[in-house]
Amino acid sequence: MNNPFKNAIKQLEKAAQVINLDNKVLALLKTPDRILQVKVPVKMDDGSLKIFEGYRVQHNNWAGPYKGGLRYYPTVDLDEVKALAFWMTIKCAVAGIPMGGGKGGVTVNPKELSEGELERLSREFGKVLAPNIGPRVDVPAPDVYTNSKIMNWVKESFIEYRKNIIKESGCDLKEKQEKEFEAVITGKALDQGGSKGRDRATAMGGFYILQKIIENQNLSVPTVAIQGFGNAGMTMAELCSEAGYRVVAVSDSKGGIYNPEGLDIKKVVEQKKSTGGIKGIEGIKEIENAELLELNVDVLVPAALENVITGENAENVKAKYIIELANGPVTPEADDILAKNGVKSVPDVLANGGGVTVSYFEWQQNLSGESWTEEQVLNKLKEIIVPAFETIWQLSIEKQIDLRTAAFAVALERLNKLCYTIDT
Ligand code: GLU
Questions:
Q1: Distance 137 CA to ligand 1 centre (A)
Q2: Which ligand 1 atom is nearest residue 67's CA?
Q3: Is the CB of 359 inside a 6 Å radius of any atom of ligand 1?
Q4: In this model, does residue 1 exceed pLDDT 70?
Q5: Ligand 1 center to 69 CA (angstroms)
Q6: Do 298 and 317 share a domain, yes or no?
Q7: 232 and 349 housed in the same domain
Q8: What's the mean per-residue pLDDT of the chain?
Q9: Are residues 279 and 258 in the same domain?
Q10: By CB distance 3.0 to 4.6 Å, which of 61, 81, 186, 302 could disulfide with 329?
């Protein structure tokens, strides 16, 4: 079984060698600053008490507050959260935003909970996280199987906690202070202090990069296969189809669909929204997830979970380009095989950086009291993501290294400059 944290460390070591990173800085980055492992007790609808495992890993804050999502998924464990937190540190440094790396999660399948159970779980998780997060300390956001509604529950628990502290100390809560508390979480709904453009941001960042590649490589009508049909995958499918690319296959956790002529993405989205799945559209061929990864397409977009392209199947990948909208979808063994075969994989820490970048914009808007239009947000995102991609692409050519190693090299150079003086 692929351990995501071990994979993350391998990626780190590879890039550290390329730039000759100071050994002390390397050692500091290999270990997270703090690990919170918490129990989250929830009263279930049948009156029983269930205790869930929760985590928040604060990996690094040299650049700014810890930043990263909260994931609800049945296989969440400490090694996964540590890897994801580490990747957030690298991701924020790749984008050059003043945020550090963190990640959290609960080991739970939220699809098996009632609405009330989900709310109690999220409010309770927020309560146990509250003493350790804050707008200038650690700023969570949505991730796999979490959304703006869940973020709002967590935010409300945090605000309640802070208000109580202020009340007990006999001070007054200033209106401005209360407003600032909203910045403790990003990915909020628009009427709860969220930013325009945040819901589409992860896919949008990846799409801007894909557009650049298509432009640079003169691909006329690229064919695209997308694995994962959550927020990121679905939005990417819509963006590609609107741009006239041929999206030939998409999949979700229950399997995939394939049409070499191109799928009608509007229909697929409707099917997903009305039935919860993408299968069952008349006349459309169904395929396994594994088959989708090996289709003969120009672009493959893994947009679900870690470890989908591994030492086992990388040899069969026929796509020319991979856009990693998921975190950690390609293992280090797979990276070597893809590089040998000339497949260019745009790494997660760059390809899905649009999400955290717009989270940063949301945080900035909350703290300054401003509200930006969607156009402003997306323009600012493009101004960050496209130059980051171009720098990394150039570096990978100059140094003859894969795009992941180039992205890590850029991030490590920046982190190295920010590293506090080490006296030991
Ligand atoms: N969960 C997203 C990620 O993995 C977004 C994190 C954020 O917005 O803080 O990048």
A1: 16
A2: 9
A3: yes
A4: no
A5: 5
A6: yes
A7: yes
A8: 96
A9: yes
A10: 302
Closest ligand 1 atom to 356 CA: 8
pLDDT at 176 over 80: no
- Say if residue 421's pLDDT is above 80: no
| Residue 174: pLDDT over 90 | no
On the question of pLDDT at 373 being above 70, the answer is yes
Q: Which of 67, 103, 155, 188 is catalytic?
A: 103
201 in contact with ligand 1, CB cutoff 6 A: no
- CB of 69 within 6 A of ligand 1: the answer is yes
Q: CA-CA distances (angstroms) from residue 117 to 82, 121, 144, 379, 411?
A: 27, 6, 18, 39, 40
Ligand 1 lined by 193 (C-beta under 6 Å) = no
Domain annotation covers residue 275: yes
170, 239: one domain: no
pLDDT given at position 422 = 56
Which of 300, 334, 353 finishes a domain? 353
The answer to whether residue 103 is catalytic is: yes
Are 191 and 205 found together in one domain?
no
Which residue puts its alpha carbon closest to atom 8 of ligand 1?
356
Q: Percent of the chain having pLDDT more than 70?
A: 99
Distance of CA 327 to the CA centre of its chain: 6
pLDDT at 219: 86
Task: Kindly list the strands in the beta sheet with 101-107, ordered across the sheet, starting from the edge strand earlier in the chain.
Answer: 34-43, 49-60, 101-107, 66-73, 138-142
Same-domain status, 157 and 172? yes
**Concatenated DSSP letters of 57-122:** EEEE-SSSSEEEEEEEETT--HHHHHHHHHHHHHHHHHHT-S--EEEEEEE--GGGS-HHHHHHHH
Ligand 1: nearest atom to the Cα of 186: 8
pTM of the model: 0.97
pLDDT at site 44: 98
Half-sphere exposure for 115 (CA within 13 Å, toward CB): 1
pLDDT digit string, tens, across residues 42-57: 999 999 999 999 999 9
Q: Choose the final residue of a domain: 337, 353, 369.
A: 353
Per-residue model confidence (pLDDT) at position 179: 82
Distance 89 CA to ligand 1 centre (A): 11
- Shared-domain flag, residues 214 and 191: no
* Ligand 1 pocket test target in 82, 202, 365, 377 with most atoms within 8 Å of CB: 202
104 lines ligand 1 (CB under 6 A): no
The helix (run of H) or strand (run of E) holding residue 127 is: helix 115-129
pLDDT at 88 over 80: yes
